Amino acid sequence: MAQRRGQGRLVETVASGIAELIPDADRPAAYSLMLDGAPQSYVDLEDPTHLEFEYIRRMAAAIDLIAPAGAPVRALHLGGGALTLPRYIAATRPGSPQRVVEIDGPLVEMVRRELPLHAKANVRVRVADARAALEGMRDGGYDVVILDVFAGARTPAHLASVEFAREAARVLAPAGWLIANVADGPPLRFARAQVATIRAALPQACLVADAAVLRGRRFGNLVVIAGRTPPPVAELTRRAAGDWFPGRVETDLDRFSGGAAPVTDSVAVASPPPPAGLFSDRK
Protein backbone atom coordinates (compact mmCIF):
# COMPACT_ATOMS: atom_id res chain seq x y z
CA MET A 1 0.00 0.00 0.00
CA ALA A 2 1.29 3.45 -0.92
CA GLN A 3 1.76 6.02 1.84
CA ARG A 4 2.35 9.74 1.49
CA ARG A 5 4.82 11.12 3.99
CA GLY A 6 6.33 14.49 4.74
CA GLN A 7 7.15 16.88 1.87
CA GLY A 8 5.48 14.69 -0.77
CA ARG A 9 7.54 11.54 -0.22
CA LEU A 10 5.75 8.41 -1.44
CA VAL A 11 6.54 5.03 0.15
CA GLU A 12 5.17 1.86 -1.42
CA THR A 13 5.87 -1.85 -1.13
CA VAL A 14 6.80 -3.38 -4.48
CA ALA A 15 7.92 -6.88 -5.43
CA SER A 16 11.59 -6.23 -4.72
CA GLY A 17 11.27 -4.25 -1.50
CA ILE A 18 10.30 -0.81 -0.22
CA ALA A 19 10.24 1.83 -2.94
CA GLU A 20 10.39 5.53 -2.13
CA LEU A 21 9.82 8.47 -4.45
CA ILE A 22 11.47 11.55 -2.99
CA PRO A 23 10.87 15.00 -4.53
CA ASP A 24 13.91 17.16 -5.25
CA ALA A 25 13.52 20.42 -3.34
CA ASP A 26 15.58 22.25 -5.97
CA ARG A 27 13.76 21.00 -9.09
CA PRO A 28 9.95 21.10 -8.95
CA ALA A 29 9.30 18.13 -11.29
CA ALA A 30 12.22 15.91 -10.25
CA TYR A 31 12.20 12.78 -8.09
CA SER A 32 14.64 10.21 -6.77
CA LEU A 33 13.60 6.57 -6.67
CA MET A 34 15.05 4.59 -3.76
CA LEU A 35 14.65 0.85 -3.28
CA ASP A 36 15.35 -0.52 0.17
CA GLY A 37 17.42 2.59 0.85
CA ALA A 38 19.59 2.30 -2.27
CA PRO A 39 19.26 4.96 -4.99
CA GLN A 40 17.86 3.44 -8.20
CA SER A 41 16.89 6.35 -10.45
CA TYR A 42 16.54 10.11 -10.72
CA VAL A 43 13.99 11.63 -13.10
CA ASP A 44 13.13 15.22 -14.01
CA LEU A 45 9.75 15.10 -15.75
CA GLU A 46 10.17 18.59 -17.20
CA ASP A 47 13.76 18.06 -18.36
CA PRO A 48 14.59 14.40 -19.06
CA THR A 49 18.05 15.45 -20.26
CA HIS A 50 18.98 16.44 -16.70
CA LEU A 51 20.84 13.37 -15.41
CA GLU A 52 21.75 13.52 -11.74
CA PHE A 53 23.77 10.30 -11.36
CA GLU A 54 27.27 10.44 -12.79
CA TYR A 55 27.26 6.86 -14.09
CA ILE A 56 24.01 7.59 -15.94
CA ARG A 57 25.64 10.62 -17.58
CA ARG A 58 28.47 8.35 -18.73
CA MET A 59 26.00 5.88 -20.21
CA ALA A 60 24.15 8.76 -21.88
CA ALA A 61 27.40 10.05 -23.38
CA ALA A 62 27.88 6.69 -25.08
CA ILE A 63 24.27 6.71 -26.30
CA ASP A 64 24.88 10.17 -27.79
CA LEU A 65 27.69 8.71 -29.92
CA ILE A 66 25.84 5.68 -31.31
CA ALA A 67 24.43 7.59 -34.28
CA PRO A 68 24.30 11.17 -35.60
CA ALA A 69 22.64 13.61 -33.20
CA GLY A 70 18.86 13.28 -33.18
CA ALA A 71 18.75 10.13 -35.31
CA PRO A 72 16.47 7.40 -33.91
CA VAL A 73 18.06 4.28 -32.47
CA ARG A 74 16.58 0.93 -31.53
CA ALA A 75 17.19 0.60 -27.81
CA LEU A 76 16.72 -2.29 -25.40
CA HIS A 77 16.89 -1.49 -21.68
CA LEU A 78 17.45 -4.44 -19.34
CA GLY A 79 16.35 -2.98 -16.03
CA GLY A 80 13.83 -0.19 -15.85
CA GLY A 81 13.75 1.64 -12.54
CA ALA A 82 12.12 5.02 -13.14
CA LEU A 83 12.97 4.88 -16.89
CA THR A 84 15.63 7.59 -16.79
CA LEU A 85 17.49 6.59 -19.96
CA PRO A 86 14.38 5.70 -21.97
CA ARG A 87 13.12 9.23 -21.25
CA TYR A 88 16.52 10.64 -22.23
CA ILE A 89 16.56 8.80 -25.57
CA ALA A 90 12.95 9.79 -26.29
CA ALA A 91 13.90 13.45 -25.72
CA THR A 92 17.21 13.48 -27.59
CA ARG A 93 16.35 10.99 -30.35
CA PRO A 94 12.62 11.40 -31.05
CA GLY A 95 10.97 8.43 -32.71
CA SER A 96 13.39 5.89 -31.29
CA PRO A 97 11.64 2.55 -30.76
CA GLN A 98 12.51 1.40 -27.24
CA ARG A 99 11.78 -1.71 -25.21
CA VAL A 100 12.29 -1.97 -21.46
CA VAL A 101 12.42 -5.24 -19.51
CA GLU A 102 11.81 -4.87 -15.77
CA ILE A 103 11.07 -7.80 -13.47
CA ASP A 104 9.22 -5.85 -10.77
CA GLY A 105 5.61 -5.42 -11.94
CA PRO A 106 4.39 -3.33 -8.98
CA LEU A 107 7.37 -1.00 -9.45
CA VAL A 108 6.46 -0.59 -13.13
CA GLU A 109 2.90 0.33 -12.16
CA MET A 110 4.11 2.79 -9.54
CA VAL A 111 6.38 4.53 -12.05
CA ARG A 112 3.67 4.63 -14.72
CA ARG A 113 1.23 6.17 -12.25
CA GLU A 114 3.49 8.65 -10.47
CA LEU A 115 6.07 9.45 -13.18
CA PRO A 116 4.20 9.05 -16.48
CA LEU A 117 6.09 8.95 -19.75
CA HIS A 118 5.57 11.65 -22.36
CA ALA A 119 2.66 10.77 -24.64
CA LYS A 120 4.95 10.66 -27.71
CA ALA A 121 7.61 8.44 -26.15
CA ASN A 122 7.78 5.19 -28.10
CA VAL A 123 8.62 3.05 -25.07
CA ARG A 124 7.19 -0.40 -24.39
CA VAL A 125 7.71 -1.91 -20.95
CA ARG A 126 7.58 -5.67 -20.42
CA VAL A 127 7.46 -7.22 -16.97
CA ALA A 128 9.86 -10.17 -17.16
CA ASP A 129 13.26 -11.48 -16.15
CA ALA A 130 15.90 -9.79 -18.32
CA ARG A 131 17.63 -12.97 -19.43
CA ALA A 132 14.45 -14.90 -20.15
CA ALA A 133 13.12 -12.02 -22.24
CA LEU A 134 16.42 -11.65 -24.09
CA GLU A 135 16.47 -15.30 -25.13
CA GLY A 136 13.19 -14.85 -27.01
CA MET A 137 14.30 -11.82 -29.05
CA ARG A 138 15.40 -11.86 -32.68
CA ASP A 139 18.99 -11.53 -33.82
CA GLY A 140 20.35 -8.06 -34.55
CA GLY A 141 17.25 -6.20 -33.47
CA TYR A 142 18.87 -3.39 -31.48
CA ASP A 143 21.45 -0.67 -31.96
CA VAL A 144 22.10 -0.51 -28.22
CA VAL A 145 21.46 -2.78 -25.27
CA ILE A 146 21.65 -1.01 -21.91
CA LEU A 147 22.25 -3.31 -18.95
CA ASP A 148 21.43 -1.79 -15.57
CA VAL A 149 19.77 -4.54 -13.55
CA PHE A 150 19.92 -4.68 -9.77
CA ALA A 151 18.08 -6.79 -7.24
CA GLY A 152 18.33 -4.28 -4.42
CA ALA A 153 21.91 -3.09 -4.80
CA ARG A 154 23.34 -6.20 -6.51
CA THR A 155 23.37 -7.47 -10.10
CA PRO A 156 21.96 -11.04 -10.16
CA ALA A 157 24.39 -13.85 -10.94
CA HIS A 158 22.51 -15.10 -14.01
CA LEU A 159 23.15 -11.72 -15.66
CA ALA A 160 26.88 -11.90 -15.02
CA SER A 161 27.91 -14.87 -17.16
CA VAL A 162 29.38 -15.30 -20.63
CA GLU A 163 26.26 -17.18 -21.71
CA PHE A 164 24.22 -14.09 -20.89
CA ALA A 165 26.74 -11.79 -22.59
CA ARG A 166 26.49 -13.85 -25.78
CA GLU A 167 22.71 -13.50 -25.74
CA ALA A 168 23.08 -9.73 -25.42
CA ALA A 169 25.58 -9.74 -28.30
CA ARG A 170 23.20 -11.82 -30.43
CA VAL A 171 20.41 -9.24 -30.34
CA LEU A 172 22.80 -6.37 -31.20
CA ALA A 173 23.16 -5.09 -34.75
CA PRO A 174 26.68 -5.60 -36.18
CA ALA A 175 27.73 -2.06 -35.23
CA GLY A 176 25.69 -2.01 -32.01
CA TRP A 177 26.94 -1.49 -28.47
CA LEU A 178 26.30 -3.02 -25.11
CA ILE A 179 26.44 -0.38 -22.37
CA ALA A 180 26.62 -2.05 -18.95
CA ASN A 181 26.66 -0.66 -15.44
CA VAL A 182 28.96 -2.68 -13.17
CA ALA A 183 29.10 -1.88 -9.45
CA ASP A 184 32.14 -2.99 -7.47
CA GLY A 185 34.75 -1.93 -4.94
CA PRO A 186 38.25 -2.92 -3.84
CA PRO A 187 39.84 -5.16 -5.08
CA LEU A 188 37.54 -5.00 -8.16
CA ARG A 189 37.44 -8.77 -8.49
CA PHE A 190 33.88 -8.75 -9.83
CA ALA A 191 34.50 -5.88 -12.27
CA ARG A 192 37.66 -7.48 -13.68
CA ALA A 193 35.82 -10.73 -14.27
CA GLN A 194 32.89 -8.89 -15.86
CA VAL A 195 35.19 -7.12 -18.31
CA ALA A 196 36.67 -10.47 -19.35
CA THR A 197 33.17 -11.97 -19.59
CA ILE A 198 31.70 -9.21 -21.76
CA ARG A 199 34.77 -9.10 -24.02
CA ALA A 200 34.42 -12.82 -24.69
CA ALA A 201 31.23 -11.91 -26.57
CA LEU A 202 31.98 -8.31 -27.66
CA PRO A 203 35.76 -7.86 -27.85
CA GLN A 204 36.04 -4.14 -28.67
CA ALA A 205 35.50 -2.34 -25.38
CA CYS A 206 36.46 0.36 -22.92
CA LEU A 207 35.60 1.37 -19.36
CA VAL A 208 34.47 4.76 -18.06
CA ALA A 209 34.55 5.49 -14.33
CA ASP A 210 35.86 7.72 -11.60
CA ALA A 211 39.64 7.41 -11.33
CA ALA A 212 39.45 6.28 -7.70
CA VAL A 213 37.01 3.52 -8.63
CA LEU A 214 39.20 2.37 -11.55
CA ARG A 215 42.19 2.19 -9.21
CA GLY A 216 40.26 0.08 -6.71
CA ARG A 217 40.25 2.72 -4.00
CA ARG A 218 36.50 2.97 -3.41
CA PHE A 219 33.17 1.35 -4.28
CA GLY A 220 31.39 2.78 -7.31
CA ASN A 221 30.01 2.29 -10.80
CA LEU A 222 32.05 1.33 -13.85
CA VAL A 223 30.43 1.70 -17.27
CA VAL A 224 31.48 -0.90 -19.85
CA ILE A 225 30.97 0.01 -23.52
CA ALA A 226 31.46 -3.00 -25.77
CA GLY A 227 30.80 -4.02 -29.35
CA ARG A 228 32.30 -5.55 -32.45
CA THR A 229 33.82 -2.26 -33.62
CA PRO A 230 36.07 0.07 -31.59
CA PRO A 231 34.25 2.53 -29.31
CA PRO A 232 34.85 6.29 -29.87
CA VAL A 233 37.48 6.60 -27.17
CA ALA A 234 38.60 10.17 -27.94
CA GLU A 235 35.08 11.61 -27.68
CA LEU A 236 34.20 9.51 -24.64
CA THR A 237 37.40 10.75 -22.97
CA ARG A 238 36.53 14.37 -23.72
CA ARG A 239 33.03 14.00 -22.30
CA ALA A 240 34.18 12.12 -19.21
CA ALA A 241 36.81 14.78 -18.46
CA GLY A 242 34.23 17.56 -18.83
CA ASP A 243 31.65 16.03 -16.50
CA TRP A 244 30.62 17.66 -13.20
CA PHE A 245 32.58 14.82 -11.58
CA PRO A 246 35.36 14.07 -14.07
CA GLY A 247 35.87 10.45 -15.06
CA ARG A 248 38.52 8.48 -16.89
CA VAL A 249 38.37 6.14 -19.87
CA GLU A 250 40.36 2.90 -19.59
CA THR A 251 41.27 1.16 -22.84
CA ASP A 252 43.92 -1.33 -21.69
CA LEU A 253 41.40 -3.92 -20.62
CA ASP A 254 43.86 -6.80 -20.78
CA ARG A 255 45.76 -5.08 -18.00
CA PHE A 256 42.60 -4.11 -16.13
CA SER A 257 41.15 -7.63 -16.16
CA GLY A 258 44.48 -8.99 -14.92
CA GLY A 259 44.11 -12.43 -16.45
CA ALA A 260 40.58 -13.00 -15.15
CA ALA A 261 38.73 -15.69 -17.09
CA PRO A 262 35.23 -15.24 -18.52
CA VAL A 263 32.61 -16.31 -15.97
CA THR A 264 30.27 -19.14 -16.92
CA ASP A 265 26.80 -19.89 -15.55
CA SER A 266 28.22 -22.65 -13.37
CA VAL A 267 30.36 -20.25 -11.31
CA ALA A 268 28.68 -16.85 -11.77
CA VAL A 269 27.96 -14.84 -8.63
CA ALA A 270 26.01 -11.67 -7.92
CA SER A 271 27.87 -8.38 -7.72
CA PRO A 272 29.17 -7.53 -4.24
CA PRO A 273 26.95 -5.55 -1.88
CA PRO A 274 27.88 -1.91 -1.35
CA PRO A 275 29.62 -1.02 1.92
CA ALA A 276 27.31 -0.43 4.86
CA GLY A 277 26.23 3.19 5.11
CA LEU A 278 27.27 4.11 1.56
CA PHE A 279 23.84 5.55 0.72
CA SER A 280 22.93 6.90 4.15
CA ASP A 281 23.54 10.51 3.16
CA ARG A 282 21.14 10.22 0.22
CA LYS A 283 18.05 9.19 2.13
Describe it for me?
This protein is of the alpha/beta class and 283 residues long. The chain has a single domain, classed as Vaccinia Virus protein VP39 (Rossmann fold, 3-Layer(aba) Sandwich). Helix content is 27%, strand content 27%. The chain is built from 9 helices and 13 strands. It has helices at residues 54-64, 84-92, 105-114, 130-135, 162-170, 189-201, 211-214, 233-241, 253-257; strands spanning 3-4, 10-14, 17-23, 30-35, 38-44, 75-78, 98-102, 123-127, 142-147, 172-184, 204-209, 220-227, 248-250. It has an 8-stranded mixed sheet, with helices on both faces. A 5-stranded antiparallel sheet has the order 1-2-3-4-5, covered by helices on one side. A hairpin with a 5-residue loop joins β1 (3-4) and β2. α1 packs parallel to α2 and α5 (162-170) crosses α6 (189-201). The radius of gyration is 18 Å and the shape is globular. It starts with a strand and ends in a 26-residue tail after the last helix. The model has no long low-confidence stretch (mean pLDDT 95).
What is the secondary structure topology, with strand pairs?
Layout (H helix, E strand, L loop, with lengths): L2 E2 L5 E5 L2 E7 L6 E6 L2 E7 L9 H11 L10 E4 L5 H9 L5 E5 L2 H10 L8 E5 L2 H6 L6 E6 L14 H9 L1 E13 L4 H13 L2 E6 L1 H4 L5 E8 L5 H9 L6 E3 L2 H5 L26
Parallel strand pairs: 6-7, 6-9, 7-8, 9-10
Antiparallel strand pairs: 1-2, 2-3, 3-4, 4-5, 10-12, 11-12, 11-13
